[in-house]
Structure formats: structure tokens, C-alpha cells
């Protein structure tokens, strides 16, 4: 309610004197106040209020302007509609911008204002205390009869719109606006007035206003229902659009899934065909490689067996030939022994016969002893002949024994030669090593001898230089002596010249000192020269001895070189044999390596192919798993999507049913209300003026057209919803057919997994074949390693022998070098020591001569020594 319209102050509330903290309550509508007391209270005041004639005329003019205001309001309402949530309602009023609509009422009232009333607050924020105070104030108002009292003005009907259009309420003083029921309530003055009632006019206006208010309410309700219907229709259309988009997305996904499944089936078939082709080609290649490997292995085994048989045959033939030769030599020796035994037996038989004949002769001679002289002569001749024969027989027997011994020794030598020939290699190697060691020793001795010779030559050159220096000193000493002699002669000839003698003596003393020093130097040089001559002689002697040794060493070196050449020849032969054996070994090793490389390459090729097969198998398994996962995801997504579609369809059907029921109820209620209104309008049509009747009839025509148009739109919406539900059922059927197709695809994938199990069996067979090939390769590798180990063992033995030889050579050479250095060092130290002793003796002797005097050593005297100490002053 508007307190200004009642003649009250808008600031009547005590709650808004100071407190701006409370929410403002600018307007109270009768729709927000429960109970019939408000309407009856306002109606009683309105019926008891005395209205002037000007106000009655203004009401007629206001009724004429209703149609224009309604059309303008509908245009403004179409511009300000907005879809909001269901249940909340905010009142939107048309701002009274046209001052012509308010001709009967002032714009500014006493004790209050009507400006800035377009802002409103929700009903939940309004104060109920204001309502109670207004009710108590209206019930306690007295009747007044004030002339010119301002009564209610026929203002423009405030049309309510229940769209949610939120507006902020500006900070202003709280005031109450007029509602639908009391917008025409006159202002109640604050002072006591006497109101005069004109019953006939009041009743007419009351009835007309009641009818107009009811028509306005019905129109507002119809508009509200239209708005809610349009909002519901838009919501349902949005839901249907969402469901359509989702169904279209599901269809596209299903089509995509079907395309992907067909592509995967094609790829699986292609992979299966490729796999079968690769498997067949791989099996053919493996068979060919196995046949080739088997053929090569057989050829290699046959070659190795033939080579071994040839080697064994050759060795056997050599051995049999040696046995044959030894048997033949044995047979010859046995034959010779038998022949010699027969000859010995013959000789023994001859000797026995000779003895018997000799005994017979002796017996016959004993009988014929009568003729002694003749008989003795014949006996002596016979004895001589017998002795000759015996000597011949013994000589022949000795020769036969010697021949027998020779043959036995030759047989033994022949037997031993074989062993010696076998041991020759080691002996020759040992000799070559010893000779190399000896050659190195001789080379070291030769170098030492050359070094000693160079030292001796240097000493000889130094001694020659000393000898030349001694000769120069002797010549200088002779010159000094000649000068001294001339000086003495001059002194003897010039005795009279005493002053000159003193000068000569002065000159003579340094000359004598120089002469003595020259003599001492000459003696020392003589001694050095003697020593150098002795050492030169020693060196020459050593040089001659070393030259002799060098000649002997050169002779030994030549002999050793000959032996070394022979050893080199033998070693060359052995090296040739060794090289031949090494070549044979290398050839066999190369063959084995070639076969091993071929086997490794074949095994690597087989492993690569097997790995490729495994990779293809893994890829196919991955693809099968991915397909299964995609199928499961698609089935799950399809089921979820179907559930969502079902839920959404059920929700849409449920909402559509609820909306239909609600609309039907509202329609029935609206029809009942319309019937009642029509009856009331028909009753009042006769009583009201023609203008009002025309306005009312035009309003009824509009309402009926709206009411008839509304069910037609709702029927079309229901038919659309039924079509949507039918479409969703058809889509459900198509999705079910898609699920059956997916089940068939799953069966196909299971069949492909079974084919993969067959592929696994083939792979295991190939792996078993590969293991067999690996075993054969390992056997070949073991043979190759055995041969390589033998070869390495031979090389290692040769390296060890060479290392031992070199170490022995180096040790012996180091010993010789160190020994030579030690001997040279001892010799040089001994020389230095002897030279020091000799120098000490010479120094003491010369010192004794200078201090004591020269002793006559020819007479057996020894040189005396004297020591002179420095005297301190």
C-alpha cells in the first residue's frame, strides 16, 4: 500500500528513522499478503470514502485509456521477457514516464514523494511490521468531511510481469506502493474530515472497478501462464536439442566405430595373409638354409675326414715304409750273421780237421821216430804251415767278428739315428741359443777391447805432448845456463867493477832461483815422463795381449759364425717346417672360421627372422588386445550412452507428462474462471455503458483467441514429444543391432586369437630348430677354440723359450759389462793410489833435498827429511 495515497507520511515507520542497515521494503502487494483482511480493509475504506465529480470523470477517461496502456504494456513486456528459474517471481512495473496518464493526481504529494518508485525488493525482504501498522492505522482512521480533499486518482494500472528480472534497489526512503486492489484508493487526510457519500455513483464505480480488476487479474494470470508455457517450451526444446545432439553424436560414434572395426578387420585379414605368406616364405628359407647348412656340414665333415684319412694314410705309409726298411735291414743283418756263423762253423770244422790230421801226423811221426832228422824237418815245415793256416783262420775269424760288430753297431746307429734326428731340433736350438749368447759375449769383449785401445791411444798422445813440453823446458834450461855462463865470464873479467858486480849478483839471484825451479820442474817432468813411459809400455803390452785376444776372438767368432750359419740353416729348415705347419693350421683355421662365420651368419639370419616373427606376433597380439580394449570401451560407452539416453528419455517423458497434467489443470481452472467472468460480464454488460461493454467484449475476444491458440500449441508440442520418443526407441533398436554386430566381431577376434596359438606352435618349432643349429655352432666353436688353444700354446711355448733366451743373454751381458766396469774402476783407483804414493814420495824427497841437502845415493846414503814450521812473529 501507498501511505502517501492515504494521506500519511511515508516516513511513518519507526524502524527507518535511524537504521539504514535493515533491508528496504518499498512495496507490498496484495498477492504477497495472506488472508482476506487486507482486501476487505481497503474496500471498506474505499467504499466509505467520498469521491468528487472530477475524480469520477477522470476515471471514465482512465477507462478509455486502458486499451492504449495495455497494448503499450504488451509491447514493453515482449521486449523485457527473460527465462528464469521456476517459482521465483519479481514484479516489474512500467515506469510512469508519461505525465498525461496522471492528470488527476499530483506528482508530488504532501508529506511524501512518489519519485523513484520503480525500484523494488523481493517479498522475503519486506517487513511484516509495516503491514500490521498499516492495518491498525486504517482501522483506526476516523471519517472526515474535508472540502477539496484529495482522493484516489485513477492512475495507470500497474501490470505485473512474473519474469525474473533482477534489479538493484537504490538507497532511498522506504515507502509503500499501491497494489491492484487499492491503486484507486483515495488519499486519507490526517485531519478529521466529514465524508459525504453519494451511494449511486459509488456503487457504479465500485462494480466497474471490481470487474476491471478481475479482468486485469485474469489477463495477468493468462499472461503469466503464457510466459511459463513459453519458458517450459523453450526448456523442452533445449532438452530435445541436447538429446538430438547426443543421439547424433552417438550415431556418428557408432558409425566411426563400425568404420574402425571394418578397417581393423581388413588390417587383420591383411596381416593374416602377410603373416601366412611370411611364414611360408620363412619356412621355405629355413628349409633351404637347413639343407644348405646340412650339405655344407656334410661336405666339411667329408673334407675333414678325407684330410684326416689322407694324413693318417701318409703317416701309416711312412711308418710301414720305415718298418719295412728296418725289417729289410734286420733280414740283411740276420742273413749276414747266419752267413758269418756258417763260415765260423766251417772254419771251426776245418780247424778240427786240421787238429785231427795234426794229431794223426804226430802219432805217425811217433811211430816213425827212426828217421829223426828227416822227420823233424818235415814236422817243422808242417808246423810252420799249420801256424800260417791258423793265423790266417784267426785273422779271418777276427775280420768276421769285426764285421759282425760293425753290422750290429750300424744297426744300433740306424736305430739311434732316428732318435737323434728327433732330438736334433732341440739340440740345434740349444746350440743356436748358446752360440748367440757367446756371440753377444764376444761382441761385448770386443767393444771393451776397443775401448781400452782408444784409452791407450789417448794416453800415448798425452805422453807425447808431455815429452814435447819437456824438450822445450830442456832447451830453455840450456839457454839459461848459457846466459849464466856468460854472466859468470863477464863477472870474472870485470872484477874491478864492483858496482857492476852487485847488480849482476842481484840479477844472478833470480836467475839462480829460476834455474833451480826449472831443474825441479825438469826432474818432476822426467819422473812423470818415466812413469808415462812405463805406463805406455804397460799399455803397449796390454795392447799386444788384447790384439792377440782379439785375433783369437775373431777366429772363434768366425768358427761360431760358421756354426751359427749351420744353425741358421737348420733353424731355417725348422722354420720352413713350422711355417708349413702354421700355414696348414691357418688354412684349417680359416676354413673353420669361414664355416663358423657362415654358421653364425645363418644363425643370425634365422634369429633375425625369428625376432621379426616374434615382433609381428607381439604386434598382432597388441593389436588384438587393443581391438578387444576398444571393443570393451565401445560396449561400455554404448551401454552408458544407452543408459543416459534412456534416463534422458524417461526424464523427458516424465517432465512432458507432468507439464501436460499441469497445463491441463491450469487449462481447466482458466476455463472455469473464464466462464465465471463471462457470466459476470454478461450481467454487468446491461448496466455498464456502451463504451465499457465494447472494451470488455474486445478483451474477451482477445482472451478467447489466446486460450484457443494455447491448447493448439500444447497439442503440437505433445505430438512433437511423442515423435521424439518414437525416434529414441528407433535409435535404441539400431544401437541394439550394433551391439549384436560387435558380438559377432568379438567372435571373429576370438578366432584370430586361435590362429595366433597355431602361430605360437610354429614359432616353438622354429625355436627348437634354432636351438639345434646353435648346438652345432657351439660344437664347431669348441673345435675352433681347441685348435686355437693348441696354436696359442705352441706360440706361447715359443715365446717363453725366446724370452728365456733373451733374459739369459741380457743377464750374461749385464754381468760381463758390470764386471768390466768394476775391473776398470779397480784399475783406475789402483792407478790413482799408486800415483798419489809416488807423488808423495817425490815431494818428500824433493823437500829433503831443498831443506837438508842432496844425499849421495850412489854411496848408499838415504835422503833425509826435515820439516820447517811457520814462525809466528
From TrEMBL:
Keywords: Coiled coil. Residues 61-77, 679-694 have a biased composition (Basic and acidic residues). The keyword Coiled coil applies. Residues 302-364, 390-459, 763-790 form a coiled coil. It comes from the Eukaryota. The keyword Calcium does not apply. Residues 95-114 have a biased composition (Polar residues). Residues 1-36, 61-131, 679-723 are annotated as: Disordered. This is Uncharacterized protein. It comes from Neocucurbitaria cava.
Amino acid at each position: 500500500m501507498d501511505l502517501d495515497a492515504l494521506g500519511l507520511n511515508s516516513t511513518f515507520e519507526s524502524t527507518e528513522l535511524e537504521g539504514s542497515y535493515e533491508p528496504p521494503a518499498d512495496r507490498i502487494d496484495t498477492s504477497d499478503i495472506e488472508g482476506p483482511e487486507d482486501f476487505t480493509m481497503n474496500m471498506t475504506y474505499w467504499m466509505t470514502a467520498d469521491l468528487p465529480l472530477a475524480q469520477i470523470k477522470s476515471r471514465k477517461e482512465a477507462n478509455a485509456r486502458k486499451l492504449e496502456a495495455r497494448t503499450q504494456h504488451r509491447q514493453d513486456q515482449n521486449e523485457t521477457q527473460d527465462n528464469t528459474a521456476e517459482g521465483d517471481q519479481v514484479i516489474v512495473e512500467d515506469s510512469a514516464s508519461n505525465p498525461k496518464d496522471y492528470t488527476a493526481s499530483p506528482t508530488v504529494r504532501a508529506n511524501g514523494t512518489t519519485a523513484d518508485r520503480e525500484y523494488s525488493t523481493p517479498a522475503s525482504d519486506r517487513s511484516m511490521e509495516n503491514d500490521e501498522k498499516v492495518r491498525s492505522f486504517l482501522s483506526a482512521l476516523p471519517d472526515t468531511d474535508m472540502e477539496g480533499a484529495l482522493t484516489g486518482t485513477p492512475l495507470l494500472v500497474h501490470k505485473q510481469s512474473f519474469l525474473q528480472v533482477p534489479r538493484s534497489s537504490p538507497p532511498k526512503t522506504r515507502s509503500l506502493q499501491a497494489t491492484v486492489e487499492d491503486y484507486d484508493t483515495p488519499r486519507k487526510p490526517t485531519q478529521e474530515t466529514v465524508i459525504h457519500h453519494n451511494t449511486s455513483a459509488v456503487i457504479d464505480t465500485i462494480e466497474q472497478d471490481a470487474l476491471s480488476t478481475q479482468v486485469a487479474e485474469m489477463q495477468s494470470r493468462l499472461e503469466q501462464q503464457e510466459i511459463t508455457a513459453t519458458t517450459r517450451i523453450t526448456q523442452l526444446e533445449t532438452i530435445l536439442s541436447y538429446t538430438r545432439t547426443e543421439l547424433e553424436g552417438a550415431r556418428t560414434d557408432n558409425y566411426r566405430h563400425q568404420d574402425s572395426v571394418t578397417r581393423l578387420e581388413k588390417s587383420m585379414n591383411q596381416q593374416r595373409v602377410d603373416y601366412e605368406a611370411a611364414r611360408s616364405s620363412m619356412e621355405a628359407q629355413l628349409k633351404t638354409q637347413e639343407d644348405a647348412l646340412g650339405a655344407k656340414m656334410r661336405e666339411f665333415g667329408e673334407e675333414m675326414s678325407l684330410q684326416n684319412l689322407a694324413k693318417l694314410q701318409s703317416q701309416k705309409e711312412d711308418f710301414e715304409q720305415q718298418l719295412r726298411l728296418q725289417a729289410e735291414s734286420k733280414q740283411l743283418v740276420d742273413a749276414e750273421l747266419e752267413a758269418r756263423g756258417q763260415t765260423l762253423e766251417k772254419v771251426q770244422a776245418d780247424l778240427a780237421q786240421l787238429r785231427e790230421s795234426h794229431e794223426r801226423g804226430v802219432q805217425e811221426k811217433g811211430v816213425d821216430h827212426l828217421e829223426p832228422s828227416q822227420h823233424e824237418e818235415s814236422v817243422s815245415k808242417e808246423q810252420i804251415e799249420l801256424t800260417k793256416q791258423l793265423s790266417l783262420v784267426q785273422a779271418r775269424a777276427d775280420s768276421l767278428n769285426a764285421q759282425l760288430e760293425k753290422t750290429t753297431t750300424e744297426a744300433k746307429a740306424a736305430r739311434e739315428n732316428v732318435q737323434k734326428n728327433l732330438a736334433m731340433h732341440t739340440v740345434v736350438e740349444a746350440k743356436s741359443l748358446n752360440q748367440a749368447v757367446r756371440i753377444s759375449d764376444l761382441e761385448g769383449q770386443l767393444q771393451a777391447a776397443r775401448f781400452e785401445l782408444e784409452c791407450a791411444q789417448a794416453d800415448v798422445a798425452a805422453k807425447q805432448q808431455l815429452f814435447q813440453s819437456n824438450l822445450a823446458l830442456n832447451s830453455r834450461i840450456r839457454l839459461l845456463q848459457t846466459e849464466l855462463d856468460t854472466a859468470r865470464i863477464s863477472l870474472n873479467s870485470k872484477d874491478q867493477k864492483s858496482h857492476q858486480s852487485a847488480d849482476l849478483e842481484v840479477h844472478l839471484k833470480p836467475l839462480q832461483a829460476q834455474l833451480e825451479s826449472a831443474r825441479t820442474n825438469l826432474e818432476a817432468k822426467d819422473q812423470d815422463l818415466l812413469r808415462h813411459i812405463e805406463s805406455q809400455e804397460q799399455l803397449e803390452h796390454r795392447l799386444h795381449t788384447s790384439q792377440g785376444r782379439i785375433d783369437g776372438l775373431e777366429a772363434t767368432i768366425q768358427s761360431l759364425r760358421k756354426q751359427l750359419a749351420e744353425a741358421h740353416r737348420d733353424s731355417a729348415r725348422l722354420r720352413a717346417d713350422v711355417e708349413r705347419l702354421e700355414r696348414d693350421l691357418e688354412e684349417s683355421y680359416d676354413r673353420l672360421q669361414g664355416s663358423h662365420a657362415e654358421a653364425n651368419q645363418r644363425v643370425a639370419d634365422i634369429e633375425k627372422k625369428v625376432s621379426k616373427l616374434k615382433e609381428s606376433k607381439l604386434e598382432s597380439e597388441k593389436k588384438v588386445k587393443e581391438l578387444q580394449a576398444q571393443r570393451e570401451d565401445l560396449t561400455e560407452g554404448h551401454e552408458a550412452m544407452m543408459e543416459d539416453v534412456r534416463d534422458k528419455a524417461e526424464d523427458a517423458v516424465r517432465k512432458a507428462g507432468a507439464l501436460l497434467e499441469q497445463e491441463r489443470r491450469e487449462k481447466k481452472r482458466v476455463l472455469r474462471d473464464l466462464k465465471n467472468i463471462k457470466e459476470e460480464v454478461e450481467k454487468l454488460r446491461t448496466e455498464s455503458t456502451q463504451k465499457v461493454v465494447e472494451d470488455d467484449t474486445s478483451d474477451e475476444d482477445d482472451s478467447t483467441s489466446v486460450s484457443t491458440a494455447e491448447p493448439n500449441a500444447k497439442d503440437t508440442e505433445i505430438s512433437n514429444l511423442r515423435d521424439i520418443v518414437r525416434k529414441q526407441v528407433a535409435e535404441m533398436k539400431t544401437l541394439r543391432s550394433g551391439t549384436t554386430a560387435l558380438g559377432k566381431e568379438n567372435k571373429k577376434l576370438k578366432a584370430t586369437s586361435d590362429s595366433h596359438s597355431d602361430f605360437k606352435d610354429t614359432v616353438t618349432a622354429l625355436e627348437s630348430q634354432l636351438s639345434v643349429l646353435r648346438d652345432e655352432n657351439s660344437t664347431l666353436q669348441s673345435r675352433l677354440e681347441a685348435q686355437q688353444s693348441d696354436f696359442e700354446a705352441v706360440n706361447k711355448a715359443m715365446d717363453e723359450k725366446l724370452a728365456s733366451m733373451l733374459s739369459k743373454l741380457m743377464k750374461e751381458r749385464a754381468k760381463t759389462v758390470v764386471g768390466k766396469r768394476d775391473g776398470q774402476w779397480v784399475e783406475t783407483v789402483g792407478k790413482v793410489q799408486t800415483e798419489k804414493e809416488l807423488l808423495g814420495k817425490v815431494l818428500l824427497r824433493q823437500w829433503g833435498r831443498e831443506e837438508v841437502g842432496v844425499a849421495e845415493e850412489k854411496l848408499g846414503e838415504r835422503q833425509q827429511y826435515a820439516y820447517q814450521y811457520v814462525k809466528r812473529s
